[in-house]
Every structure is written in C-alpha cells, then in structure tokens.
C-alpha cells in the first residue's frame, strides 16, 4: 500500500511535462521533458530508411516518417507508464525537423504524391545552373537580399520546381487545386491534427526561411519569389511563429498514446534553430554547432538580419510568440558530417557500427597525411560549389582503414573550422569557445580533435538532446500553455564537459593548410549542365572533357585497327 502511495505521490511531484517530436534525416525521436527542470524523462528512437534511386538522389518515404512518429509516441508512452509517470501531465508537444526536405501531398486523399526529396539531394543541379544563368551576371546570390540564401540545390523551392516539372501526379494535383506543399514539419502537423479531416496546414518562420520563397524581412511568402520559381502560392502552408498553438493532436483512442489526443501542438522549429534555443543561445553573439547528418554552426545576430560576406547563410533563428520579434542568425552549413560515418559503414563496410569508428581512429591517433574531403553533395558553406565531389588524397602504401577513419573525423572538424573562420570574419568578434550538440558529440575523440583544430575550447552539455529540448521549450512557453518560462533567471543551469586544445597552434595550422589544399583538388569535378537523353538519364557526353576523351579514344582505336589491317 505504501509503495503505491509513494508512486502516486511521485507522479504528482513531477508537475507539467512537455513532449517533442524530433524528426531528423536519419532517425525519428519522441522525447518527454520535465517543464520545470528540463530533465529528460523518457524517449524512443526509430531509424529512417533513405533511398538513393540514382546517383546524387536522396529520398525518404513520407508515410514511413509519419509511422515512425506514431511508433515513437506509442513506445515512449509505454515507457512512461512503466515509470509510473502520468501521461496526462503532458501539456504540450513541440515539433522539430530536418529542414528543406520537400514533399507534396493530396489534401483530399491525404496521400503523398512522391517520396520526400531530402535536403542533401542533388537532382536539381541542372535546374540551379539554369536559374543562375538567367540572373544578371550569373550571380548565385541574386535572391539573397530577400531570402538570405544563395540559389542552391539545398533549398526547397528548386526541389518543389523539380516535382512540378517531373512528376505527373504533382503537376495534375497543382492544376486541380488538390496539392499541398510542405517541409517535414508541415506534413507532420497536418497529419497529427486530423489530416484530410481538418488538418492544419502550417509551417513556422524558421522552416519557411529555408525554402527560397520566403522574405526574411517581411516574414511572409514573397509573391515575386514565388513568381520567379513559378510556384502557385495557394499550395504553400500558412506561416506562423515558432511558439503558438497550431492545433490539437488527434490520435486513435485505442492506443497507449491515444491519451495524447487533445494536447496542443504549440512549438515548431527547424532542427538547427531548435538546437540554438535548446542551447539557450538567446543573446546576440552566442553560437552552437550541431553534429548530425550534416554539421550546422549558428550564431545569434539579434533582431536584425546580417548578410554574410564570407559564404554564410542568413536565416531566421526563432520567433517565440505571435507578438514577439523575430530573431536572426548567421549559419554555416556543412552537408556531410555524420553521413560520412554512415558511408564508411554502409558503402565501404570498414566499420559495423558508428562507435567502432572512434576505436579505429584512436588506434592510430593520426591520419598519416591522408585527407578526406567528403563532398558527396558538392560543398556547402563557405564555398557553395555544387560541382565539387568527394576526394581522398595523400595516400601511401602505409595508409590503412584506421588512417581513413581518422581522416573522416578530421574532415568534420576542418569543415567546422572553415565555417567558424567565416563567421569570425563576418562578425569581427572571434568566438572564444564553441558550444556543441548532436549525435556525433558522443565521440570523445572527435570532440578533442575539434578543440585541437579550432584552437579554442569545445563545450558539450551532458544532456545531448538539445534539438528536442528547444522544440519542447517553444511548445511549453506558448501562449495558452505557459508551463515553461524562458526568462533568463528561470532557465535551468546546464551541466557540461569542456574539451581544451592539446596540440600547439602551429601543428593545427599546418594540418588545416593541407586540408585547404585537398579542398581545392575536389573543386570543379562535375562542371557542365547534364544533357538528358530523353528519359531523365544523363548522357556520358554531358561532360565535355569526358566526351572529348571518349571520342578521342574511339578514334585512336579505329585508327590503330585500320593501321594494323594495312600491315
């Protein structure tokens, strides 16, 4: 009897809880936090499959993504029940998501009309080249004054344009006014608030600012940008703040997670903005770096958007309430960070699990002069060079898989150094330490390498789920929920671990200079616009040098045969 009373009293003591859906590129998580202490109480994670139908193409199944969210919610609710935590204490749910990933669905059937095209995807390279070629002076920054972004394969507008041009179902649904466009946040919120039966079609300012259709000054869709990409504005979701009640959860009552029905979804932030909030970077000049599939360094620039002179993006950091001002950030985006680990595991098979990479790299403690530029999707910040491709150089007979593992970890650190340098140049105030988060931060060797290569301390919070925490904070602080205070004096103290630089700056500079040399070798690999042979395939003759080489080789062979025949 006493133990039951203790259990029920411990339930009461927890107070309000807030949950977060964290839908990333490689996995989905559902996490539940204590709104008063920011303590993580329970969570569940499900991996997401990626498909690569053609070279450079990356897709995910929107229904699998949605199903993974339901599964994570169900399993987490089961775990909470086992922990004797009352699910009805969850007062709000926040959503955070992989940004830019693009999908279109039918609002009448609720069915996706094509797979989600992932942010990393390169199929739009020819579209991007065509768009840049029609700008005055072939300027990739032609729209930057409105969007804060260069014209790149990375952002949603070109992916949406590709879907409308190449997928009949999408083109038809647009014509018959049944199409809905959204990034992952919009798809999830629409489905979770009722879908075809009254689902809410919305997005927040942070996700909208990654589409190239959004004006970061007016904080709304821009008619001129929509006209530029020839996209009808009626298919776009309504833009809302990052912290307000969008709608209420609708879930089948027979499920454990059915008790989440009626709870408001009241927070929405793109994953990198959510991590900035979760790291409490509310002051101008504060920055964080997230190590996930890619690597993203954001620095809070306050209430005014700052345009970069050094290849960084200007983005909306957050807008925490309908009547609150928007806050902006400078962002350095690296396409391939954790994805290089996945590549070493799935494509080369040199490791079986991600944790093996640290052991393998630590066994040699050096790359032995081997440098790895993982430009699988071109190079993002600060270069914005879609023609670059991956390169491994400095190989000798002595090089083995352990050196390659070390070079892969160094690559993540060097890429971070490049965007940090750009950020320091743009702001004029060098960062004195780097706050970090994301899945890869559990790799202690990587964290030490990062401190060595940056020559500044790296600070890692002991609770690594800062992205989900940011979404939960936004949801819990929303008007009408108000269970989470964002006032500086009320924010809980975060415990963290600090990695200090351990090598001398000269060695660090020498290695960084070699890295820069390797990056130059990776540039201008895929240079010309692909020429389609009519069925969407690109011809080998689309590369002019390759075309000449093959034609020349054929002529030499014919010539050699002819001479041989006349001997």
UniProtKB/TrEMBL annotation:
Every Carbohydrate kinase FGGY N-terminal domain range: 18-278
Family: Belongs to the FGGY kinase family.
Catalytic activity, EC: 2.7.1.30
Protein name: glycerol kinase
Gene3D superfamilies in UniProt: 3.30.420.40
Database matches in InterPro entries: ATPase_NBD (IPR043129), Carb_kinase_FGGY (IPR000577), Carb_kinase_FGGY_CS (IPR018483), FGGY_C (IPR018485), FGGY_N (IPR018484), GK1-3_metazoan-type (IPR042018), Glycerol_kin (IPR005999)
Annotated Carbohydrate kinase FGGY C-terminal domain residues: 288-478
Encoding gene per record: LOC120033117
GO process terms (BP): glycerol metabolic process; glycerol-3-phosphate biosynthetic process; triglyceride metabolic process
Any single Pfam family the record assigns to this protein: FGGY_N
Principal location: cytoplasm
NCBIfam families reported for this sequence: glycerol_kin, PRK00047.1
Keywords carried by this UniProt record: ATP-binding, Cytoplasm, Glycerol metabolism, Kinase, Membrane, Mitochondrion, Mitochondrion outer membrane, Nucleotide-binding, Transferase, Transmembrane, Transmembrane helix
Molecular function terms, GO-annotated: ATP binding; glycerol kinase activity
An example Gene Ontology CC term for this record: mitochondrial outer membrane
Pathway(s) the chain acts in: Polyol metabolism; glycerol degradation via glycerol kinase pathway; sn-glycerol 3-phosphate from glycerol: step 1/1
Cell location: Cytoplasm; Mitochondrion outer membrane
Transmembrane region(s): 546-564
KW Cytoplasm (keyword) present: yes
């Amino acid at each position: 009897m006493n133990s039951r009373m203790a259990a029920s009293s411990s339930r009461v003591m927890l107070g309000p809880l807030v949950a977060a859906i964290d839908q990333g590129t490689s996995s989905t998580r559902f996490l539940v936090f204590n709104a008063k202490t920011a303590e993580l109480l329970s969570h569940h994670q499900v991996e997401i499959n990626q498909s690569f139908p053609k070279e450079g193409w990356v897709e995910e199944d929107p229904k699998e993504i949605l199903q993974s969210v339901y599964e994570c919610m169900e399993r987490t609710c089961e775990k909470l029940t086992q922990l004797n935590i009352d699910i009805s204490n969850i007062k709000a749910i926040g959503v955070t998501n992989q940004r830019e990933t693009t999908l279109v669905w039918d609002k009448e059937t609720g069915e996706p009309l094509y797979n989600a095209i992932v942010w990393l995807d390169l199929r739009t390279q020819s579209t991007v080249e065509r768009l840049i070629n029609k700008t005055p002076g072939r300027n990739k920054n032609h729209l930057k004054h409105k969007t804060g972004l260069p014209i790149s394969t990375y952002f949603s507008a070109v992916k949406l344009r590709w879907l409308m041009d190449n997928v009949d179902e999408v083109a038809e649904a647009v014509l018959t006014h049944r199409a809905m466009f959204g990034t992952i946040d919009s798809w999830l919120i629409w489905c979770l608030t009722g879908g075809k039966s009254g689902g809410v079609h919305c997005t927040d300012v942070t996700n909208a600012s990654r589409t190239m259709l959004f004006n970061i000054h007016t904080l709304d869709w821009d008619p001129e940008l929509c006209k530029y990409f020839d996209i009808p504005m009626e298919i776009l979701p309504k833009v809302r703040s990052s912290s307000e009640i969008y709608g209420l959860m609708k879930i089948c009552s027979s499920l454990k997670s059915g008790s989440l029905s009626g709870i408001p979804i009241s927070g929405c932030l793109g994953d990198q903005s959510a991590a900035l909030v979760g790291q409490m970077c509310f002051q101008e000049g504060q920055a964080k770096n997230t190590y996930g599939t890619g690597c993203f360094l954001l620095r809070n620039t306050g209430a005014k958007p700052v345009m970069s002179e050094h290849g960084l993006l200007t983005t909306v950091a957050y807008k925490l309430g309908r009547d609150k001002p928007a806050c902006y950030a400078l962002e350095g985006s690296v396409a391939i960070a954790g994805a290089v680990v996945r590549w070493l595991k799935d494509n080369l098979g040199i490791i079986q699990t991600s944790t093996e990479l640290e052991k393998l790299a630590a066994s040699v403690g050096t790359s032995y002069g081997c440098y790895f530029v993982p430009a699988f999707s071109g190079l993002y910040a600060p270069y914005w060079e879609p023609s670059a491709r991956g390169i491994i150089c400095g190989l000798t007979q002595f090089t083995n898989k352990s050196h390659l593992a070390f070079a892969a970890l160094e690559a993540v650190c060097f890429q971070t150094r490049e965007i940090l340098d750009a950020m320091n140049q743009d702001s004029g105030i060098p960062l004195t330490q780097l706050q970090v988060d994301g899945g890869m931060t559990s790799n202690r060797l990587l964290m030490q390498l990062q401190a060595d290569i940056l020559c500044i301390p790296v600070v890692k919070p002991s609770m690594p789920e800062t992205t989900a925490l940011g979404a939960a904070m936004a949801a819990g602080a929303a008007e009408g929920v108000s269970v989470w205070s964002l006032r500086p004096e009320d924010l809980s103290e975060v415990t963290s671990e600090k990695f200090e630089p351990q090598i001398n700056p000269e060695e660090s500079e020498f290695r960084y200079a070699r890295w820069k040399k390797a990056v130059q070798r990776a540039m201008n690999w895929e240079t010309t616009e692909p020429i389609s042979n009519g069925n969407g395939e690109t011809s080998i003759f689309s590369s002019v040098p390759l075309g000449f080489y093959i034609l020349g080789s054929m002529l030499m062979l014919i010539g050699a045969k002819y001479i041989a025949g006349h001997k």
